[in-house]
Specification:
This protein has helices spanning 3-6, 11-24, 68-81, 89-93, 96-108, 120-131, 146-155, 167-176, 200-210, 232-235, 264-273, 275-278, 285-300, 303-321, 341-353, 383-399; strands spanning 38-39, 45-48, 51-55, 113-117, 137-141, 158-162, 183-188, 213-217, 244-248, 258-262, 333-339, 356-357, 360-361, 371-376. By secondary structure, the protein is α/β, with parallel strands linked by helices. The strands form three sheets. Strands 4-10-9-8-7-5-6 form a seven-stranded mixed sheet, sandwiched between helices. A four-stranded mixed sheet has the order 1-2-3-12. A hairpin with a 5-residue loop joins strand 1 (38-39) and strand 2 (45-48). 50% of the residues are buried. Bound molecules: pyridoxal-5'-phosphate. Pyridoxal-5'-phosphate is lined by residues 119-121, 124, 145, 147, 188, 192, 217, 219-220, 248, 250, 258. InterPro entries: Aminotransferase_I/II_large, AON_synthase_class-II, PyrdxlP-dep_Trfase, PyrdxlP-dep_Trfase_major, PyrdxlP-dep_Trfase_small. This is 8-amino-7-oxononanoate synthase.
């Protein structure tokens, strides 16, 4: 087969993507994806093409990105351990700081032991792969994150989806499943594109009745929900527990990496069966240092969490009053649902002209017709920043015909 012939099946797909990009982004002012923003220190602002713009779609929920203490900890880790890790964790890649971070993660999240992965994505793929294989059944919420779906698909287990945040539907799915094998139910604690919270008590009750393990992904819950940012169990006042808790070090914690917490024997097991842990280089020293310092700050400064919780509730009330659809959001993640992909793109582009970045999320990341701007209120946003953003959201929506 000659080279052009070998590309024959891919060319229409590549052309379709090119066409879609041209349809949405016909000039640089309409670029809303893969944009190289420069952070403006420890502020919620970014620099782009000489302009200072207010970022309203970042992950830094507790306002620590660029914090001088976190930056100093990352630099100190580089000074002591260098820029890379000379291997995977099982061989030459483990440094004392990895173990210190794992102790801190376990302590912060109220479990005996923890492991850190090189990303949250790797953590999900590794954990699910260690838990399930052919002959097992995995039950996924319809809106579970892609890393959960991918991890589940790789296991060779039977996969079943249940309706979003619907324990009754999960109950029916569990009742209908083949008996035998491990039954694993996986949910996001906070859904990253909707900002709603998994109904943990009801899910726990259903799982217990059917002998299923319950795993939660705390990526957008750590530092966001619970009185001190400890996630979904704290949010439900520790009345129920998840069997397996995983999360990331890349959202509220401004680093990279993923984590899992549990008993020491369980962590010893995961260490030997999670393939991304075994076969991918260890988390780099700077990331470990930054994550460790951020968790210590979060522990000492819970007011960062309560501030973002209070301000996101205020933000949500105001934008709802103004006529926006924020779906079932009840956290710092607030979607502004605008309908078509084109609407979302037009709206984001108009917002940028008003000095605010609100990034569009379009299909297939969300169902067609439910395109949105994914807004996140963080501890870095002052009340004045949030009020400035609200004015921009409303005026750009009027200008683009989304609000009258
Ligand atoms: C719910 C959820 N889980 C896992 C991940 C992956 O985390 P990371 O970006 O650290 O790989 C994300 C990232 O967006 C996420 O939203």
């Amino acid at each position: 087969m000659n080279a052009p012939e070998a590309w024959r099946h891919l060319e229409p797909k590549i052309e379709a993507v090119g066409q879609r990009i041209r349809q949405l982004e016909w000039d640089s002012s309409r670029r809303n994806n893969f944009v190289p923003y420069t952070a403006d220190g420890n502020t919620p602002y970014v620099m782009l093409d000489g302009e200072r713009l207010l970022m309203m779609s970042g992950y830094g929920y507790i306002g620590l990105n660029g914090d001088t203490r976190v930056v100093a900890a990352a630099k100190a880790a580089i000074d002591e351990y260098g820029t890379g890790t000379p291997g995977v964790r099982a061989l030459a890649g483990t440094i004392p700081l990895h173990e210190e971070l794992e102790e801190e993660v376990a302590h912060f999240l109220g479990r005996e032991s923890a492991l850190v992965f090189s990303s949250g994505y790797a953590g999900n793929v590794g954990t699910i792969g260690a838990l399930c294989g052919p002959g097992d059944t995995i039950f996924l919420d319809k809106l579970d994150h892609a890393s959960i779906v991918d991890g589940a698909q790789l296991t060779g287990a039977t996969l079943t989806r249940f309706r979003h945040n619907d324990p009754g539907h999960l109950d029916r799915r569990l009742a209908a499943a083949e008996p035998g094998g491990t039954r694993l139910v996986i949910v996001d604690s906070v859904y990253s594109m909707d900002g709603d919270i998994a109904p943990l008590p009801e899910l726990r009750e259903v799982c217990d009745r059917h002998g299923a393990l319950l795993m939660v992904d705390e990526a957008h819950a750590l530092g966001v929900i619970g009185a001190t940012g400890r996630g979904i169990e704290e949010h439900f006042e520790y009345k129920v527990r998840a069997d397996i808790k995983v999360g990331t070090l890349s959202k509220a914690v401004p680093a990279n990496g993923g984590w899992i917490v549990g008993s020491k024997p369980f962590m010893d097991y995961v260490k030997r069966f999670a393939r991304p842990f075994l076969f991918s280089a260890a988390l780099a020293p700077a990331q470990v240092g930054a994550a460790l310092e951020s968790l210590r700050i979060l522990d000492r400064e819970p007011e960062r969490v309560t501030y973002a919780q209070r301000e996101s509730a205020r933000f949500r009330d105001i934008v709802k009053q103004a006529g926006f659809n924020t779906a079932d959001s009840e956290t710092a993640v607030v979607p502004l649902i605008v309908g078509s992909d084109q609407n979302a793109w037009d709206y984001a582009s108009a917002l940028r002209k008003a000095g605010v970045i609100g990034l569009p999320v379009i299909s297939p990341a969300v169902p067609p017709g439910l395109a949105r701007l994914r807004i996140a209120i963080t501890a870095a946003h002052s009340r004045a920043d949030i009020d400035f953003a609200i004015d921009a959201f409303v005026s750009a929506a009027r200008q683009t015909g989304l609000l009258s």
